[in-house]
From TrEMBL:
The lineage of its organism: Bacteria, Pseudomonadati, Planctomycetota, Phycisphaerae, Phycisphaerales. The keyword GTP-binding does not apply. Homotetramer. One of its GO terms (molecular function) is magnesium ion binding. This is Xylose isomerase. GO terms for cellular component: cytoplasm. Belongs to the xylose isomerase family. Binds 2 magnesium ions per subunit. It catalyses: alpha-D-xylose = alpha-D-xylulofuranose.
Length: 436
């Protein structure tokens, strides 16, 4: 078997004092933080599409990366080589999980039957590699956005034939995810949205999207797949408006269509910022509503304004993400999938290793910072102090649903309140900086 990451050793933990760029400084898989190992807290995964297929292309230029596993005379040989390269890479960086789209791992051929046959062949190979290495599948999904048939979406397509094709592709992707022991399945509406309402039947499209999800829920039960279903919010790009805009709109959609018990959310940092939120906001909203399932770990460049999918190295982001996750009880499903790609000028295989080391160390530091914040209790104490008024008689009566408008008016006339409690934002930001 060819070696695609030759000369790159298995990455190990060497501690903060190490100057080895191919070692972890903070991610120690077996170190215990807040009662669990880092490996169990973080549940890292590598994404097949960015690691093995993302060539570094952007809207202004073709790919730049050296990817020898794609150099083959035919598509299936390249697919087999790429799967070998993926598991070699996973072994070098020591992540316990991987994720894929169906068309990442096997090519789209002349018809659906041929494509399914090719997918089965590559899944045979993936199954053998999983068994040999102990690596597990975090989640699978179907690519319903690259082929021209999906130019107007899949579940929201104006064509019933395209809807049927998309459903068939989801069916097959669910089957192979189930076969590989996948712990979840993601629905990302890559083109489930619109560019203009001039040519869009908004009611029909959103109702048809719900119909596709219900079909998937029914088929999940039929095949005995017990993994978690996720919806991944994203507000725009490639469409002008996407129906899965953010965590809150996804929640409303699930409630409207009676799907809230069947789905959780896969929150991506870069998608949250595109929606005008912080990564922390969408995570917090999902967590308080019992919807936090999995995380696509990346970041965007706020100066560029598109989905740049950069590796997560911002410690404020990772600390606040892990603070929400720890307060929510940690992952009960899902994990931290690096839905991130190396930069266009990072062209060599070793750059992919550097990128994952940086992301894994950043989240390890975020975990340690979040655990320290919770253990210390200073920030939580200030927040509790700010809301202490809700512990008095009128506060408890309001929150229990027993207060009447007349009672509240009488209370307001008596207290004649002039200001709300102090926010202490500057102090809280200073405290956060101390933990960092």
């Amino acid at each position: 078997m060819a070696e695609y990451f030759a000369g790159i050793p298995t990455v190990v933990y060497e501690g903060p004092e190490s100057d080895n760029p191919l070692a972890f400084k903070h991610y120690d898989a077996e170190a215990v933080v807040a009662g669990k190992t880092m490996k169990d807290h973080l549940r890292f995964a590598a994404s097949y599409w960015h690691c093995m297929k993302g060539a570094g292309a952007d809207p202004f230029g073709v790919g730049t990366r050296e990817m020898p596993w794609l150099e083959a005379g035919d598509a299936m040989t390249a697919a087999r080589q790429t799967m070998d390269a993926m598991f070699e890479f996973i072994g070098k960086i020591g992540v316990p999980y991987w994720c894929f789209h169906d068309r990442d791992i096997a090519p789209e051929l002349d018809d659906l039957g041929a494509s399914n046959k090719a997918l089965d062949e590559i899944v045979d190979q993936a199954e053998s590699l999983q068994q040999a290495t102990g690596v597990k599948l975090l989640w699978g999904t179907a690519c319903l956005f690259i082929h021209p048939r999906f130019m107007a979406g899949a579940g929201t397509s104006p064509s019933a034939d395209v809807f049927a094709h998309g459903a068939a592709q989801v069916k097959k992707a669910m089957e192979v995810t189930h076969r590989l022991g996948g712990e979840g399945y993601v629905f990302w509406g890559g083109r489930e949205g619109y560019d203009t309402l001039l040519n869009t039947d908004l009611r029909r499209e959103t109702e048809n999207m719900a119909r596709l999800l219900r079909l998937a829920v029914d088929y999940k039960k039929e095949i005995g797949f017990t993994g978690q279903f996720y919806i991944e919010p994203k507000p725009k790009e490639p469409t002008t408006h996407q129906y899965d805009f953010d965590a809150q709109s996804c929640h409303a959609f699930l409630l409207q269509h009676g799907l809230e018990k069947d789905f959780k959310l896969n929150i991506e940092a870069n998608h949250a910022t595109l929606a005008g939120h912080s990564f922390h906001h969408d995570l917090e909203y999902a967590a308080i509503n019992g919807l936090l399932g999995s995380i696509d770990a990346n970041r965007g460049d706020l100066l560029i304004g598109w989905d740049t999918d950069q590796f997560p190295t911002n410690l404020y982001d990772t600390a606040m993400a892990m603070l929400t996750l720890l307060r929510a009880g940690g992952f009960t499903t899902g994990g931290l999938n690096f839905d991130a790609k190396v930069r266009r000028q990072s062209t060599e295989p070793v750059d992919l290793v550097y990128a994952h080391i940086g992301g894994m160390d950043a989240f390890a530091r975020g975990l340690k910072i979040a655990a320290a914040i919770i253990a210390d209790g200073k920030i939580d104490g200030l927040v509790k102090e700010r809301y202490v008024g809700w512990e008095n008689a009128i506060g408890k009566k309001i929150e229990s649903g027993q207060a009447t408008m007349a009672e509240l008016e009488a209370h307001a006339l008596k207290t004649n309140v002039m200001r709300a409690p102090v926010g202490r934002q500057e102090l809280l930001e200073n405290l956060l900086n101390e933990y960092l």
